Amino acid sequence: MHFNGYLAAFRLNFKIELRSIWLQAVIVAIPLIIIPFMLPSYRDSLRAQGHLGANGSEQALPGFAILFSMFSLQLVLQLFFQEHEWHTWDRMRASAVSLLELVMAKLSVSFMVQVIQVALVMLIGSALYHYRPNGSVLALAAVCLATSIVLTLFGLLLYIFSSSQNMAMSFNNILGMLLAGMGGALSPVSGFPDWAQKLAKGSPIYWAMDAVGKINFKHAGMAEVWPDLRILLAFLVALALLATVLFKRGVQRKE
User: Fold this and answer.
1) What confidence tens digit (pLDDT) does each residue in 201-210 have?
2) pTM of the full predicted structure?
3) 116 burial via Cβ count (<10 Å: 0-12, 13-18, 19+)
4) If 0-12 CB within 10 Å is exposed, 13-18 middle and 19+ buried, where does residue 119 land?
5) pLDDT at residue 13, as a whole number
6) Is the separation of the CB atoms in 148 and 114 below 8 Å?
7) Which residue blocks in 130-221 are alpha helix, DSSP H?
8) Are the beta carbons of 71 and 31 closer than 8 angstroms?
9) Per-residue pLDDT for 1 more than 70?
10) pLDDT in tens, 86-129
11) ABC transmembrane type-2 domain: from which residue to which, for each copy (predicted)?
12) Are 117 and 30 in contact (CB under 8 A)?
């Protein structure tokens, strides 16, 4: 992969995303608007679990940040499907930019937007709702970055397996809510039935929220959240390998 080709494709896709910056602003604003309505129930739930100093933001803020980050996966889908809708995919493939450079540029733009969205929700939410993790902020940042990469690759797989953008968007909304809900983004997994707690471990969101819980309530640093990060990295590698094997076949179905 040549850096110049990647950089040119990145700039092009970044300019395309700037046209829908209003949508990114909405995705940042909505969780911040919803959170105050959820704080009392989350506060009571966390205090019932023994976290007597909790104000509810410890669950609400990271949970809704991750949930709406999953909704923003439509950015991945748009960046790929627009090429087919505009009939520019073949032109891009005939240019000096390689397939790897093109794909990595699109994924990089989506990943960057997701990171900015999560960071804004967490930073603004911390100021508004007094979110104060008692563990390592560096560990929290690492969890958010790893989760964003996993979700970006999940969006790539939705593109590969979907025959149209509408199908991909539908899958994204359904699977996004399912993975976020069963992973504990909407409510603590500890309140789930035993069978649901076991099932929750199949979602990468579970491991992200588990790490966040350690940082919020157990003074955790990088060493303490490393087991969760390791599993998130395993999801990352598995999704990357699957996408690599299936990508060309997925593109051919859309041509």
Assistant:
1) 999 999 999 9
2) 0.89
3) middle
4) middle
5) 83
6) yes
7) 137-161, 165-183, 194-200, 204-217
8) no
9) no
10) 777 666 666 667 778 888 888 999 899 889 999 999 999 999 99
11) 22-250
12) no
In the structure encoding, which two tokens stand for residue 201, read together? 């471990």
pLDDT at 2: 65
Q: Give exposure, 193-214, as e/b (b: 16+ Cβ within 10 Å).
A: eeeeeeebeebbbbbbbbbbbb
What 3-state DSSP class applies to 39?
helix
The span from the CA of 220 to the CA of 228, in Å, is 12
**Do the Cβ atoms of 125 and 57 come closer than 8 Å?**
yes
74-85 and 99-129 helices cross at what angle (nearest 10)? 150
Length of the chain: 255
Cα separation, 86 vs 97, in Å, equals 18
Cα–Cα dist 26/152, whole Å:
19
Rounded Cα–Cα distance for residues 59 and 19 (Å)? 33
Q: How far apart are CA 128 and CA 57, in angstroms?
A: 10
